[in-house]
């Protein structure tokens, strides 16, 4: 049973990038915590990151092809721009949980719109690195 964790642009810089907003944990730290908790819950967790929109689309297709149990998707700034991601989520049957470290609704107006949200099973945002762990718990319960 696989849970795929897809991360979008600039999330490779986590830990160094605006730590006041995104925290000091790196994506590797988050991946290690997810793998540990996933194992305890009976899931294999695979974490990917790309700065390229199409790679995220490919990742969603891949989740479907591999029969993944769920996808956790932090699309970064593509959240607010990408109709392609919306379409890709609608094109697959695997449930997708939208994840954000920060709470986009508490930030600039341009972050208040998510193209991912209308097709997502649900959204977890605002809890820093814990957003991923909370999303993993939610995914495991689906
Ligand atoms: C983010 C929020 C987005 O608005 C931003 O562009 C990011 C990170 C988050 O995890 O809080 O890159 O998705």
From TrEMBL:
Entry annotation: catalytic residues: 22, 100
For this UniProt entry, the molecular function terms from Gene Ontology, in alphabetical order, are: 3-dehydroquinate dehydratase activity
Q: Positions of the site: Transition state stabilizer?
A: 17
Documented EC number(s): 4.2.1.10
Its domain of life reads Bacteria
Q: Which InterPro entries match?
A: DHquinase_II, DHquinase_II_CS, DHquinase_II_sf
Listed Pfam families: DHquinase_II (PF01220)
Catalytic function, reaction form: 3-dehydroquinate = 3-dehydroshikimate + H2O
The answer to whether keyword Lipid metabolism applies is no
Which keywords appear in this protein's UniProt record, sorted alphabetically?
Amino-acid biosynthesis, Aromatic amino acid biosynthesis, Lyase
Specify whether Amino-acid biosynthesis is a keyword of the entry. Answer: yes
**Which residues bind substrate per the record?**
74, 80, 87, 101-102, 111
Which pathway does this chain act in? Metabolic intermediate biosynthesis; chorismate biosynthesis; chorismate from D-erythrose 4-phosphate and phosphoenolpyruvate: step 3/7
Matching entries from SUPFAM superfamilies are given as:
Type II 3-dehydroquinate dehydratase
Self-association state and partner proteins as the record states? Homododecamer.
The family this protein is said to belong to: Belongs to the type-II 3-dehydroquinase family.
What does the protein in this record do? Catalyzes a trans-dehydration via an enolate intermediate.
Q: What is this protein called?
A: 3-dehydroquinate dehydratase
Q: Which organism is it from?
A: Novosphingobium rhizovicinum
Task: Recall the taxonomic lineage recorded for the source organism.
Answer: Bacteria, Pseudomonadati, Pseudomonadota, Alphaproteobacteria, Sphingomonadales
């Amino acid at each position: 049973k696989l849970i795929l964790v897809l991360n979008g642009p600039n999330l490779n810089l986590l830990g160094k990038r605006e730590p006041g907003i995104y925290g000091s944990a790196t994506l590797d730290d988050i991946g290690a915590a997810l793998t540990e908790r996933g194992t305890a819950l009976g899931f294999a967790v695979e974490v990917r990151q790309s700065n390229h929109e199409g790679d995220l689309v490919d990742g969603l297709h891949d989740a479907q092809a591999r029969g993944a149990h769920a996808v956790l998707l932090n699309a970064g700034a593509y959240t607010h721009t990408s109709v392609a991601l919306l379409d890709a989520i609608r094109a697959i049957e695997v449930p997708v949980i939208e994840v954000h470290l920060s709470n986009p609704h508490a930030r600039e107006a341009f972050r208040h719109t998510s193209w991912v949200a209308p097709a997502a099973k649900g959204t977890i945002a605002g809890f820093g690195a814990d957003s991923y762990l909370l999303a993993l718990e939610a995914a495991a319960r689906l």
